[in-house]
Amino acid sequence: GHPGRLMDLPVPPAPDGDGRPLALVVESETAARIETADRLAEAGFEVLEAWSAQSALLQIERHAGLRLVVVDADLPLTLPEDRFGLTCEIARRRPDLALIALSAGPSPDAGTLPAGVRFAAKPLTPAFAREALAQLFCA
Q1: How far is CA 40 from the centre of its chain?
Q2: Please, are residues 68 and 97 in contact by the beta-carbon 8 Å criterion?
Q3: Strands 22-26 and 66-72
Q4: 3-state DSSP call for residue 35?
């Protein structure tokens, strides 16, 4: 086989202001995380990845330039039944961020998600990713 050269090369840091907004994908399943990250990259985002609530909260603290977070709505913040808990916590800490809650489960009841958070069924579609990008630039 050929070496997996796509994934394991170190990526040089992008120069500031290369024009691509920074997005964070929070997803515990590797395959789903890569798929979502690919959709966002294709749409024109620079993409960071997090695989746990702790990792996600660390990333949003560390990267002030973050513009969009796509979060697995079913990833628990603390309690396993705490659906959307992480989404709400990110919204509380960084109200400036565009947030998309992705889930394979049922849509949230009205009022469950913080104002401005958008819900989408998994997997993230290229159209939804492009729409998220367009909204950032219209905002």
Answers
A1: 9
A2: yes
A3: parallel
A4: helix
Predicted TM-score (pTM) of this structure = 0.83
pLDDT by residue, tens only, the chain of 139 residues:
544 444 554 555 544 556 799 999 999 999 999 999 999 999 999 999 999 999 999 999 999 999 999 999 988 787 777 789 999 999 999 999 999 999 988 899 888 899 899 999 999 999 999 999 998 887 5
3-state helix, strand, coil in the chain (%, to 5): 35, 20, 45
Q: Which helix (H) or strand (E) holds 69?
A: strand 66-72
Range 7-27 burial, b when 16+ CB lie within 10 A, else e = eeeeeeeeeeeeebbbbbbbb
